[in-house]
Specification:
By secondary structure, this protein is an alpha+beta fold. The chain has four helices and eight strands, in the order βααββββαβαββ. Helices cover about 35% and strands about 30% of the residues. Strands 1, 2, 3, 4, 5, 6, 7 and 8 form an eight-stranded mixed β-sheet that branches. Helix 1 packs across helix 2. About 35% of the residues are buried.
């Protein structure tokens, strides 16, 4: 089941995000903490409460197993005439749930939001995360040629999803 995140979910989301980040960054040779500190938890509380963001969670039984965050204002103009974009801020799945369809269900929700807005989806993916790159490509995302500096000397690569 996918639902809007509730304020009481923030700590569990911080923990899920920290575990997921540690797994994919670690696989790329960059170590980060798998346990969130107080500041990390506070950031998630702010994100869940921020009206500019939509934070959706995937739930299995009583457990939060995934989260996707997008710009809730949804659509914003770009330099291209007649093109709008919606930003996928982040998608994270509990590492033990990878390849179980959780990420795909969250991605379907994002694609639906972008299609309803007739908008191009955009996201940045760490270059040393081939699993995520394959995931995005499998779901119809393509490189847009942009990048920005990322950790451990590896860039974040820009991807887009066209309606």
């Amino acid at each position: 089941m996918i639902r809007d995140a509730a304020p009481g979910d923030a700590d569990a989301l911080a923990e899920l995000h920290a575990r997921s980040r540690a797994a994919y960054y670690g696989a790329g040779g960059y170590e980060v903490a798998a346990v969130p500190d107080a500041e990390y938890r506070a950031t998630w509380r702010k994100m869940v409460a921020d009206s500019r963001l939509a934070v959706l969670v995937a739930v299995s039984g009583d457990d939060l197993v995934g989260v996707i965050t997008l710009d809730a204002n949804g659509v914003f103009p770009t330099n291209a005439p007649d093109e709008t974009r919606v930003r996928l801020v982040g998608i994270f799945v509990e590492p033990g749930q990878w390849s179980n369809g959780v990420g795909s269900a969250l991605m379907e929700r994002f694609v639906s939001v972008a299609r309803q807005a007739d908008a191009v989806g955009e996201v940045d993916v760490w270059a040393r995360n081939p699993r995520a790159i394959r995931f995005y490509e499998h779901h119809g995302w393509t490189r847009d040629g942009t990048s920005r500096p990322g950790p451990a000397g590896a860039d974040y690569l820009g991807f887009v999803h066209r309606p």
